[in-house]
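This week, look over our next protein:
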Amino acid sequence: MKDLKKITGIAILFIVVLRLSIGWQLLYEGLWKIDSLSSTRPWTAAGYLNNAKGPFRDHFRSMTGDPNDLNWLDAEKVKAKWTAWEQRFLNHYPNLTDAQKSKLNQMVHGSKYFAAKLSALPPEVEFRGSLGGVVKYDPKRKLLIVDGQKHLTPAEKQRLQSMVPVKKGDNGKLEGGTALDREFYEAVEKVYARSARLSYIEKMQASLRGNPELAGEINVKQEGTIDGRRIGKIEQYKLALDRYEEKLAKADQAYKVDHLNKIWSETQQMKADLVNPIRALEDEMETEANKLLTPEQLAAGPIPHEDTEIHRINMMTIAALTILGGLLLVGFGTRIAAIAAAGMLLSFYLVMPPWPGVPEAPGPEHSFIVNKNLIEVIALLAIAALPTGTWFGIDGLVYRFFHKKKKTTK
């Protein structure tokens, strides 16, 4: 313990307090992130990495797998993602009943068909033309059936009901026609209401593919002209990304960087407007699926996350924060823990380094060259250079134990 003679007591106190403070901060960050994993919005490093700046931008952004969230705007990829989630749900809760499995499948993918009871088909009713591919009658089961993939449109419903001489009176009661006609009219009403329920995949597809505002549209009559095609917001977002990347490569002056920040902010707002509704659908789907479970099934806990690169990064970050923070706090393996923590924080620093020519990171902090992360890196390296663990921590107990053992051996 010769170091005690070289360093004053007050200096030792403050260095130990510095180590404990950094250790507590890292540990608490890790514990908070662990706690968030059981929430509807678990913590992820994706947002931080997606906003990476500077020379290592492409490297850090690529770690998320989908830095611009374009996969959320691809209907096929979202469908595959949700189908994989459904399979993980089934694997995690193997004791689901057939009824629960059926409801889950209908909720995610939709029903194969929608039906309403009908004792017989009125003689004047015929399913001609396009209706024949959507509606049919099963005389054996006495059901009026609508194809689950096609659903029944309001126009088709009206067309079906107009086949019988029945009208709904002001009091809501059906008037005219035979009893069978009125039964058919009501069956159409019921099957239409049931077919109006869209599965989550169908809702997503309707949003990404069926909404001309998002997907764009082609005017067949004016195809080949400037008015023949209107691009949707999804394509506008992709063009905005290309424009940003192009300007980023040429941004060599402060005013250009400021303009870039404005473009990036606008682009991120476009992304939020497009992606958030699809994310909300996913959250709603998962919440509704959990409502299918019994208390005993819920005791199995939430289903495991999809094994993606960003998920592994999240878990490694949480583990590193928690373990290294704990080691610094108790003073065990202090030097190694301090060096490892310094390396981790240095990687945080390099994601958004406050260097000349690098767009400023979002947030209230304004730094140049040095920011809070770099200060902590330097502090941790200073801690690693000193035996703070032997001054106060488990390292000191280990040191004294082996020191006494050596003396006894001699």
User: Anything to note?
Assistant: The chain has a mean pLDDT of 89. Residues 315 and 326 are 16 Å apart (CA to CA). The longest helix spans residues 254-290. DSSP finds 18 helices and seven strands in the chain.
